[in-house]
Amino acid sequence: MSSIEIEDIGFLSPESVYPEIKPHIHHTPILKGRYFNEILDAEVLFKCENFQKTGSFKIRGAMHAVGKKLSSGNIRAVATHSSGNFGQALAFAAGQYGIRCHIVVPKNAPMAKVQAMQGYGAEIEFCEPGTQNRERALQNYLQQHPDSVFIHPYNQKEVIEGHMTLVSELKIDGINPDIILVPVGGGGLISGISLASSHYFPGCTVIGAEPENANDAFLSVKKGEIVHLTEVNTIADGLRTSLGDITFSVIREKVREIITITEEEILLAQKEIMGRLKIVAEPSSATVWAAAKKIKNQLAGKTIVLVISGGNVDF
Amino acid sequence: MSSIEIEDIGFLSPESVYPEIKPHIHHTPILKGRYFNEILDAEVLFKCENFQKTGSFKIRGAMHAVGKKLSSGNIRAVATHSSGNFGQALAFAAGQYGIRCHIVVPKNAPMAKVQAMQGYGAEIEFCEPGTQNRERALQNYLQQHPDSVFIHPYNQKEVIEGHMTLVSELKIDGINPDIILVPVGGGGLISGISLASSHYFPGCTVIGAEPENANDAFLSVKKGEIVHLTEVNTIADGLRTSLGDITFSVIREKVREIITITEEEILLAQKEIMGRLKIVAEPSSATVWAAAKKIKNQLAGKTIVLVISGGNVDF
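YS: structure for the whole thing
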């Protein structure tokens, strides 16, 4: 049970984060399609983080976190555990700042993602799958390398602050959303977005989308404490993680509801996005379009932003 | 053997075509990726017609052709035969001008494309597969409907003129290409592009890309007359058609060479485009990236435009 108050965390404002990471990231485009507008009878805007550097939004948080850690102490490397997008993002961010990056990767991680991490210059350490194995391996590394600092993939203030900048771009684009729909995995993205949305768009509602087969965030909010599932089996591989104490606190306070999506709904939504928008979207991203269709009656006439979180699909 | 001289055809200039169709089409984006630049040691620009209305470049030609036909005579409908992208484009264009559209479709056409044509308001008439069956069915329809006019999918002056506008957009974007690589099917797109390229960029070279398994354009240029293949078996379904007399004449005069691509090369190139650019590209479009890799030694240090012709993939 979390007792963190988000005021106590002292998040920076998105305006103070955005200028520093702007030179390192893409201002990602908004795409729209008549097909989606007609189904919802609404203005549907897809914020396309599949076109972001390293193929997902994660670079926003990684870049800000590395920058902050570097400016606050004498470190020579960053380290994390990741099976995918965050590892790529951290490797890229470390490369931008000219420091080392060490990533503990479960043996069963997709080869394409491991190769991408290596391509960005990361040192890879393989471990057995499972959260405990990952954390133990990383702990060992950090003990042996005191000049290294751990960057958590989502449950970390600076990472969440970095993700706020996605909303800064909506503001710059002149968009005034009524509702933003965001995929929920560990909760880093939706935390950043809901904090920044409160800041820029006080009337805007943030809603999460999560696979029914990995509905830990939905259950956590319902129960009032973080729920860890023992079994998650979803095609949306980016959304298998549990919340952390920081992301749970933000979600509980800032997110109106979490919609759960079946595997069939995810696949259909992914097909619609790829077939109609002509972009490559991860299954995780497809949850938001599936969620929008489920709450259609709340959306008519409104401006809806759907966050396509990434496009790293293993072809 | 064609004896058409392209001067005798009297093509309009792209400047006179562009303003009229501009309100009806998207100015499609240019995408780039470090991955592609590094492989070719060149500036690689993808012109993304997958984001064009109806999902392919074909709307450019269809829109201009319908507009021209309407302004030159008393017609109430357009008709064509198509198994895919041109049918969608003509149906959309006819809808924009408020006239009927009749499309003869082979029974084995992809269901997604047939549904898209119907979605744009076309009347569909199914026929047995094969060029002769398609032409016969269309001929019957035209005889019974004298207020209808046939728009050829590629071997038609106005269609080719419409496709010129893709190059107008490169000019507007401030791009100054050394080489433009274009997929070759019936030759309408590469005809429009090579004519407009001569106009805007006299020093630019236009090169075609064609499946080895449907290498009729390559053979036609070599032999000096239009070659029809009896068997074509390629995943690049948009490139199975033979040249027409007009497109053959333009290609012979304006296109430097045609590179042929194996099925394996097409699939690998499509994987690279989808995996790295995060866009949905048809196999036909992937031929241009495969061709660029084959002539890598001619491209170093240059500005290369690769035309992604469409994104209509049946998921």
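YS: worth flagging: The CA atoms of residues 211 and 261 of chain A lie 5 Å apart.
IM: good catch. Also The beta strands of chain A are 30-31, 43-48, 77-81, 100-106, 123-127, 148-150, 179-183, 205-211, 257-261, 303-308.
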